[in-house]
Structure formats: structure tokens, C-alpha cells
Amino acid sequence: AQTVTQSQPEMSVQEAETVTLSCTYDTSESDYYLFWYKQPPSRQMILVIRQEAYKQQNATENRFSVNFQKAAKSFSLKISDSQLGDAAMYFCAYRTSYDKVIFGPGTSLSVIP
Amino acid sequence: NAGVTQTPKFQVLKTGQSMTLQCAQDMNHNSMYWYRQDPGMGLRLIYYSASEGTTDKGEVPNGYNVSRLNKREFSLRLESAAPSQTSVYFCASSAVDSDRLKHGYTFGSGTRLTVV
């Protein structure tokens, strides 16, 4: 069965600095997608970035980028130039070939002014 | 605006009461899902529906039932609420097509349910 692990329950970063959130997953599938979702205090789930397993190139969306290491089954999220609005719970997620998305337990990110 | 509409946003139930959480999407998505979110456990899948007329159990289905009323609507019912069902519930939908793996979910805004 697929599992997603986020080993950092809480992280903090100074405003304008860079922070990296870790995620590892376990799967026997060869084709899949990985996602990072952001959940601010409003509770809304927001898709931040996605990565296809077959693509070597790491995905980038503005200040958000990933470091995808397929062999190591690692999918970390880097947030550059952190802003106060980045404070949120971040979930790493894996989409299976059966159209289900499995979520990690989340990392709570605080941004210090 | 297009999206997933979930009602109610908040609900308090007494143990043993029943209720139905409603979810509707207007994006013509085939797949719909119900998750519950608990602290330190992320989101766990309760039930999902890959298409109209089909439903399947997820990771934590006990104590819940679902109905895929039509392509747009997917409801979650608690027949006899228990304190262990206190949680935040999310409905989500997703496109399923030839590039289905690349789609994440579109989420509703969540329902905070407290069972006392």
C-alpha cells in the first residue's frame, strides 16, 4: 500500500528566508503524481505544485519549487522569499493509479516577521 | 464561481443523532471523494465515487454511508453519530480523463462537525 510521510510536524522560517519541507512516500507504481497542498487558517485546501514521476525536471511555481528524487522516493518543497501569507499547514500527497489521493500528516509552517 | 460546494460549514450533533453532509460540484468531474481531517493524521479517505452510480470504501468507512445522487452531488451520511466522528470533513472532486493522474483535487471549504 502507498504511504506518505512528513517527518516535520512543525517548521518555522523568518520572513524573506527560504525553508524546505520534507516528504517521503512508498509505492510500487511506476507512474504517479505527487502534490503539495496548502491549508491556511481559512481551512481551504489549495494546490501549490504538482510533479509527474516520469519527469526528471523539478516543478516550479513562482516561489515554490520541489526537489524530486524518484529513487529515494523523496519529494521536498522549497519556499523561497517566505511571506507572512505562506503560514499554513502543508500536506504532501500522492495520487494512485486508482484515482485516490493519499495525504501525509502535514507540516505546520510558521513565518516569523 | 465554479467549484465544490459543501454544506453545512459547522454542525454540532448529540451522540446517536443522524445527519447528512451535502456536496455538489459544477465542473463536470467524474470522481468525488469524502475525507476527514484529524490533527496529526492528515486527510483520510472515507468513501469515494469514481463515476455516477458507483461508490467504494476508503480507509475509514465505518459509521458512514454515501450516495452519489447524480454526477454533481455526493452526500455523506452519519446514521448514529459518535464522539469519535468529531472531525473536519472535506468533499473533493477530480477530473478523470486520459491524463487523469496529473489532476489533483478541487476541495470544498470543509464542515467542522462536533459530536457531544
Explained architecture:
The complex is a heterodimer of chains A (113) and B (116). Chain A is mainly β and 113 residues long. Chain A has strands spanning 3-5, 10-14, 19-21, 24-26, 33-39, 46-52, 60-61, 64-69, 74-79, 88-95, 101-103, 107-112. Chain B has no helices and eleven strands. Chain B starts with a strand and ends with a strand.
Can you lay out the helices and strands and say which pair or pack?
The complex is a heterodimer of chains A (113) and B (116).
Chain A: E1 3-5, E2 10-14, E3 19-21, E4 24-26, E5 33-39, E6 46-52, E7 60-61, E8 64-69, E9 74-79, E10 88-95, E11 101-103, E12 107-112
Parallel strand pairs in A: 2-12
Antiparallel strand pairs in A: 1-4, 3-9, 5-6, 5-10, 7-8, 8-9, 10-11, 10-12
Chain B: E1 4-7, E2 10-13, E3 19-25, E4 31-38, E5 42-49, E6 56-57, E7 64-68, E8 74-78, E9 87-94, E10 106-107, E11 111-115
Parallel strand pairs in B: 2-11
Antiparallel strand pairs in B: 1-3, 3-8, 4-5, 4-9, 5-6, 7-8, 9-10, 9-11
